[in-house]
Structure formats: C-alpha cells, structure tokens
Amino acid sequence: MISVFIADDQAMVRQGFGALLAAQPDIEMVGDAVDGREAVSGVQRLTAAGTPPDVILMDVRMPEMDGLEATRRILAAPEPVSTRVLILTTFDLDEYVYEALRAGASGFLLKDAPAADLVAGVRVVHAGDGLLAPSVTGRLIADFARRRPDDRPPPGNPAAVHTLTPREIEVLKLIAAGQTNGEIATTLIVAEQTVKTHIGRIFAKLHLRDRSQAVILAYETGLVTPGG
C-alpha cells in the first residue's frame, strides 16, 4: 500500500483528493494538514512511529508556513527520508515550482489535473520517478534555471559529474529533456533495463534521490542549457 499525506489549507481539496485516493486499492490516506507547520509536525509524528508517509501532496501557499519551507524541513531531517513530496500548484503559482524542486520535491501536479493524473502521479512518485512531463515541466525548469539564479548549491554532488561515463552523460541529458526510461531506451537503441541500470549508477555517483534532482543538477552544472 502507498501511504499518502495531504497538506492543503482548502478543506474541499483535502477531502476531495483524500476520497479519490482512498478509493484506490493500492493507496491509503494516513493524515492531512491545513498548513505547512501542521504538515511538518504530522509527518514527524508518523515518522517517529515508524510509519512515515510514502508520498505527501503539498500545497504551496498555506498560512503559518508555506509548502516550500515545509518541504525543506521534512526532507532535511537528519535521518534518511524515504518520503517523497509532490507539490500541488496552479498555473499562477508556477514561479514556485523550480524552488520546490530545489527544496527536494519530486515533482508537481496542477490542481485542475484530471483525477486519473492525480492517482497516476502518486504512483509514479512512489516508484521513485520524478513527475517531469517533457511538455510542461521540462520547459518550466529550463526557464527558471535561466531566469532565477540562486546562491544555493545544486542537489547531490555536482563535483562528481566528471566521474560519469559518456553513456551516463547521454542518459542524464535525456532525463533533463524530460524523457521517460522507455523513450531514452528508444533514443539510444538499448534495452529499458539497461537504461534503468545507467540511471541507478548516475544517482549513486551524484548522490541524487530522484529524477527531479537529476534535472536540477544537469541544468545548474551547465551539462545542459535552456533551449540547448
């Protein structure tokens, strides 16, 4: 079962998304919160009890503490964190998406997305993939990588980029372009399992937790450039 925690200050969103996800045979709701501060404390309680949520649906704009700060605090815990954060946003909040990914979020969902996309998104993120659709998120990340320079270091260990093999660099560039494992396999004319092996080695060498961090690192180290 995939355990899900929802943080959103709108009761209708919490209840609606919660009911939709709870109706799935492989998903269970383990809690919710009305703001970021409550989300942090709620997730900490579950984690202390040995049952950290697998996925958090995190709104951005909330009272007391916003979703970005809550994401940072949850994912910066001293002990290893298995929880993945999926940011809930609307088109007018897109300026926050890049910062959310920098904070460690595994991707984002638009609040007006179809119900099937919400369910699929939870499963994708739980499986360890970033929710990075090339038609939307790839362009968005590229845009903010260009327009919003930041003094904070990239995620993972960017200094280890030079340890990647030429093939691993190719794979990382295709991840940054928003390609799925299947699309990368087609592009490189290799088996999908081979792609998964390359990705596992890339993540290990660069100390990355998921594809979202891989995209951020690729842009911020200059391995790929917006529009390149």
- The Cα radius of gyration reads 17 Å
Estimate the helix proportion, in percent. 40-55%
Strand content: 5-15%
The largest sheet is: 5 strands, parallel
Number of helices: 10
Strand numbers in spatial order across the main sheet:
2-1-3-4-5
Question: What is the number of strand segments?
Answer: 5
Judged by helices, strands and strand pairing, the structural class is alpha/beta
Tell me the domain tally.
2
- CATH class descriptor of the largest domain: Alpha Beta
Distance between the termini: 40 Å
Overall mean pLDDT stands at 83
Query: How do the helices and strands follow one another from N- to C-terminus?
Result: EHEHEHEHEHHHHHH
Topology-level CATH name of the largest domain? Rossmann fold
- Tell me the CATH superfamily of the largest domain: Response regulator
**Large-scale geometry:** globular
InterPro entries: CheY-like_superfamily, NreC/VraR/RcsB-like_REC, Sig_transdc_resp-reg_C-effctor, Sig_transdc_resp-reg_receiver, Tscrpt_reg_LuxR_C, WalR-like
Domain Response regulatory: 3-126
Organism: Fodinicola feengrottensis
Keywords: DNA-binding, Phosphoprotein, Transcription, Transcription regulation
3D structure, described in words:
The structure is a single chain. This protein is globular. The mean pLDDT is 83. It has ten helices and five strands, in the order E-H-E-H-E-H-E-H-E-H-H-H-H-H-H. The chain is α/β, with parallel strands linked by helices and 228 residues long.
Overview features:
47% helix, 228 residues, five-stranded parallel β-sheet, Arc Repressor Mutant, subunit A, Rossmann fold
